[in-house]
Amino acid sequence: MQSKEERKLHKASPIFILLDNIKKIIFPVLIALVGPGGSYWEYIALAIALLVSLASVIQYRFYRYWLEPNQIRVKEGILFRNERQVPYKRIQNLNLTQNPLHRILGVVTVQLESASGGKPEAVINVVDMDAVKELKRLVHGNEEDAEALDEQEVVEKKSALLRLPFAEIVRYGVITNKGLVILAVVFGFMSQLSDGALKDYIEDKIVAFADWITASFDSFIGDLGALTIVVYVLVLAVLGLLGLWLLSITFALFKLHDFELIKNKGKLQATMGLLTRMQATIPMSRIQTLTIRNSLLHRWFKRLTMSVETAGGVNHENQGLTLKEIAPLFVSSRREELLREIQPDVSWQEVEWKPIESLAVKRITKKLVLVSAALSAPLWFVHWGWIPVAFTSLSLLGWLYARTYVKNTAYCLDQEMIGFKSGVIFKKETYVRLSKIQTVQVKESVFDRRYGMAKLEVDTAGAMIGAHHVDIPYIMLDDALRIQNKLVERVSHQQFVW
Amino acid sequence: MSEKQSLIDVRPQESKRLHPDSVKASRISHGIFAFILLLGGSVAAFFAESWLLLGIIASAVLLIFLIGYIWARKSYQYTWYWLTEEGLYIQTGVIWRRKTLVPRNRIQHTDVAQGPLQRKFSLAKLVVYTAGTRDASVPLDGLEFSVANELREQLRQDGDDDAV
C-alpha cells in the first residue's frame, strides 16, 4: 500500500496554478489599469507579473512527491529546487479545498500543515480523489477514513456532531456581522483608486443614490423642520445596519453552506462551503486551546460559538483554510455535550469557578473615573454645565462596567485543565489542557503591587494575537504563585505532544 | 507600597543573580548608544548652525544616558533566576515585574549567544525556546559565559531524562 513510486500532479493542475497566480496579481493589475496610469513603468511591471505567472505554470511539471512509509517527500522548483520531507506524524492538519471547477474535473487541492507556523508545509495543487484517499490513509493511519468531499457520501457516514441548517447560518451571519469586514475591504479598495474614471463613476452612483433616498424621503414624510436631520441619521443607520447584516449573511452562506462537523476516531472533520467546498481535519489531541464565545447577540438567540487553536501555523484566514470555529453556532443547551465530545479527557462536570478579587471593582472604577474625567473635560468649550453631567454619568457607567466585569471574570483549575472566562458584552471562556501549556508567567504591575495583586498568564502553541487566552488578572499574588506552582507540578509530569 | 509583599520578595534560597559585569557591559552599550545619538545630533546642529539646538540635544542625550546608567544597576538588582526540578524560573522587571516559568519538558532548544561587548566581559545570553507563542523565546541576558553553558547543559541533560 505504501508505494515508493514518484507521483505527479493531476493533468489539470496548470489551470489551477494559473488561476491562483491570477488571483494573486489581479488587484495590483486592476489598480494599475484603472488608476491614473501615466508612468509606463507600471505597464512593464504588469508585463513582468504576467510573464512570471505564466512561467509558473511550468512549475507543475517539476512538482513531484513520494509517499514513503513514514513521510511524504515533496520536490518542487525550476531554478531553485526544493525538497522537503514531512513525517506523517508531524502533520497537524490536512485540509482539502474544492471549488466548482475542481468538482467538474474531479480534483482537490490539499494543504498539509505542520506545527512550524506560517505557510502550510506542503500544498498539493491539484490531485485526484484516489491520491487524496491514499494520502489521508497514510496521514491518519486508518483505512476506511478516506472519503470524498461530495455531500452524499459524507452524509451517509456517521452522524454529525453539528450541522448548520439555513436558519442557523442566517443567525450566524447576524451574530458575527462580518459585513463590516467586507465594507472595510470595499473602502480600502476605493481609497486605492486614485482619480480615475471608475472612481468618478462610483462616486456619481453614490451621490445619485443619496439623492434618491432624500427625494423619496421628502415625498414620504414631508418636511419635519429641524428634526429632519435626526430622522435621516436614524433611517440611514437602520438601513446601513440591515445592509451590513445582509452582506454578512450572504458571506456566511458562501462559507458555511451545508456545514457539518464529524467526529471520527479522535479526529474532528468539518466540511463546508457553497461554491468552494472545504474540508479540514484536526486530531482532537492536537487542540491547544478551546474558546467558547457568547456575545450579547449570542445570548439573544441562545446560541454559542466554539473555536479552537491548533499548533498548525495557518492561523490567518487569508493564508489558507483553517478550522478555527469548529462549531460556528450551536444551541446553548448543547454546551456540555459538545465540550465532552471535543475534549473527552477533561471532566467537565466538576468545573468549579473561582472569582477574581472583588477589590478589582475599586481599581477598575478608579481607572474609568479618570478616563471619564479626560473625556468630559473638552465639554468646557461647549458649556461648563455639561461637564458634571457627563462626568457623573460616565463614571456611573464605569462603575457598572467594573462590577459586571469582576462578576463575569473567573478561573478554574483542576487535574487536567485550566480555564478562564471574562467579558461584559462579548463573554468568552477559554480552556487549556495542562499538557498543552508551554510557559506560565506571573506579572505584577505597579498598581498590582499596591494591592498585593498579580496577573497570571499561560502561554500555548499557536496562540493567535488578540484572541482570548488564559490571562487571569486581579488575583492575589499568593494565589497566582500557588497556581503557578501547581501548574508547574502538573505540567512537568505531562510530556508535551503537539 | 512597602508593607505588601511583592513578587520580587518571594523567591527561593537558591535563586541566582546575573554576573555583576553585566551592569558594566550594559552601561557601556548605553554609552555607545548615547554617543551615536550625540554624534547624529551634533551633525544636525552643525547644519542648522544653532548652538541652542546642540545644547538641547546634548542635555537630552545626557539625560538618556543617566537613565540608562541607573537602569542598568536597577535591572541587575531585580533580575534573578533559579533552576528547579520542574524548570527554569526567570524573575525580571523593575517597575512591571514578571516571573516566567519554563518547564523543563517544554524546552524545544536553547541558544547561547555572545556579542562583541559581551565577549570582552566573557558574558553571554541564554535563550530558551519553547513551542509557545508569546514566550516562544525566553532570553536571559548577562550570564557569565561558562554559567550560561552550564545552565544549558543542565537543561538539556535533564530534559532528555524527562522525555518519556
From TrEMBL, chain A:
<feature type="transmembrane region" description="Helical">
    <location>
        <begin position="12"/>
        <end position="34"/>
    </location>
</feature>
<feature type="transmembrane region" description="Helical">
    <location>
        <begin position="40"/>
        <end position="63"/>
    </location>
</feature>
<keyword id="KW-0812">Transmembrane</keyword>
<feature type="transmembrane region" description="Helical">
    <location>
        <begin position="368"/>
        <end position="387"/>
    </location>
</feature>
<feature type="domain" description="YdbS-like PH">
    <location>
        <begin position="407"/>
        <end position="486"/>
    </location>
</feature>
<dbReference type="InterPro" id="IPR005182">
    <property type="entry name" value="YdbS-like_PH"/>
</dbReference>
<keyword id="KW-1133">Transmembrane helix</keyword>
<feature type="transmembrane region" description="Helical">
    <location>
        <begin position="169"/>
        <end position="190"/>
    </location>
</feature>
<dbReference type="Pfam" id="PF03703">
    <property type="entry name" value="bPH_2"/>
</dbReference>
<keyword id="KW-0472">Membrane</keyword>
<feature type="domain" description="YdbS-like PH">
    <location>
        <begin position="267"/>
        <end position="314"/>
    </location>
</feature>
<dbReference type="InterPro" id="IPR014529">
    <property type="entry name" value="UCP026631"/>
</dbReference>
<feature type="domain" description="YdbS-like PH">
    <location>
        <begin position="60"/>
        <end position="137"/>
    </location>
</feature>
<feature type="transmembrane region" description="Helical">
    <location>
        <begin position="229"/>
        <end position="254"/>
    </location>
</feature>
<protein>
    <submittedName>
        <fullName>PH domain-containing protein</fullName>
    </submittedName>
</protein>
From TrEMBL, chain B:
<protein>
    <recommendedName>
        <fullName>YdbS-like PH domain-containing protein</fullName>
    </recommendedName>
</protein>
<feature type="domain" description="YdbS-like PH">
    <location>
        <begin position="76"/>
        <end position="155"/>
    </location>
</feature>
<keyword id="KW-0472">Membrane</keyword>
<dbReference type="Pfam" id="PF03703">
    <property type="entry name" value="bPH_2"/>
</dbReference>
<keyword id="KW-0812">Transmembrane</keyword>
<feature type="transmembrane region" description="Helical">
    <location>
        <begin position="53"/>
        <end position="72"/>
    </location>
</feature>
<feature type="transmembrane region" description="Helical">
    <location>
        <begin position="28"/>
        <end position="47"/>
    </location>
</feature>
<keyword id="KW-1133">Transmembrane helix</keyword>
<dbReference type="InterPro" id="IPR005182">
    <property type="entry name" value="YdbS-like_PH"/>
</dbReference>
